[in-house]
Structures are given as structure tokens and as C-alpha cells.
Specification:
The structure is a homodimer. Chain A is α+β, with helices and mostly antiparallel strands. Helices cover 59% and strands 19% of the residues of chain A.
Chain lengths: 101, 101
């Protein structure tokens, strides 16, 4: 298989997951409501993608209180940052390959 | 939803489909065996992705003979080229967004 295709990470291939990673890397951390609004996903769909990314070790969940109100935030792990960077690099090579025709 | 995320095309989001479109745009057209070898997919998996891309109007199937042997080739349509370019542009904006941190 072509090198740049092999490095495309299946954990990130859906638009929802690309969006989650992208928003979290720009925002550093975000809560469920912010992600839902930014990505226009349903609760169930967003929750299932967040769970999958957490299970892969790419996200961590931060539980805290704002005043007395519980607040759950999501943050990309070091491993997630590295994996997403590799994925972006693979996509970039794919794009370059398709520009050089 | 962020503009660059909205333009990511779900028809192209799997690695297999990115690979198919990329190989066909570079090679102009290719037969099943060539795609299978290039992308390391099973017959069933490749056939199902080709069918989906054809149904979306992004690929056309060219049936011809090489000598007496039937040969089926796949080629990207004008519509497919435009749609894939939009997808690549959206991914490029995603990449740039994540580089500017």
C-alpha cells in the first residue's frame, strides 16, 4: 500500500472525529455542550465518538465543578496529539500527491 | 459547524475511498486488480467501496476487451474530480487550522 495511505489513521477518519480532535486541539479543552454546538452532532453520536477516542487513548476526560455544578471537559492526550499529527501528515501527503498531476 | 469541517465529504472519509480516488486520479484509470494491489483491500471490501463511489456519481466503469479477455476499468468522473478536490481543500483547511496553534 502507498505509504501515505497506510498512515491514514482509521480512528480519525470520520468527519465527526476529525472535528472533535481539531476543535479540542485549537481550544485546548472543551465541554460536551461546546463540542456539540461546534460540530452540530446529536448527543448520542458525539458521546459515541468521544468514547471511542477516549478508549483509543487519544482523549482524556476531566471532571470538575464550576461552583456547585459538575462539568465534564475533554482534552487531547499527548498520545492523541502525536497520532493526530501523523494523520494530518498522511492527509497532507495525499493532498500533495493529488495536486502534482 | 466550522466551515472546513462542513465541507469534508462523508463519501470520501474512509481510508479505502481516499485511496481509490487518489490512485485513480494519479493513474487516470485502473482495473480491479491494480486497485486491489495498490490499496491492499479484499475483493469484497474494494468492490463495495467502488460501488458506493459509482452510485454517488464519482466513478464510471469502463468495460472493454484486452484481446479476448474482458477487462473492467474504473475512472473518476468530472463530478468526482470536483467533489474530491473540494474534499481535499476542506482537509487542507483542517490541517492548516491545526498547524496554527
Amino acid at each position: 500500500m502507498k505509504e501515505y495511505i497506510r498512515h491514514i489513521n482509521k480512528d480519525f477518519e470520520s468527519r465527526a472525529r476529525l472535528g472533535i480532535m481539531s476543535v479540542l486541539l485549537v481550544a485546548d479543552s472543551a465541554d460536551f455542550g461546546f463540542l456539540k454546538e461546534a460540530l452540530q452532532l446529536t448527543d448520542g453520536n458525539l458521546a459515541s465518538h468521544l468514547r471511542a477516542l477516549e478508549d483509543a487513548g487519544y482523549l482524556q476526560v476531566l471532571k470538575q465543578f464550576i461552583g456547585r455544578k459538575p462539568n465534564t471537559r475533554y482534552q487531547v492526550t499527548v498520545q492523541g496529539t502525536a497520532a493526530f499529527r501523523n494523520h494530518m501528515d498522511a492527509l497532507e501527503r495525499l493532498i500533495l500527491t493529488n495536486k502534482h498531476q
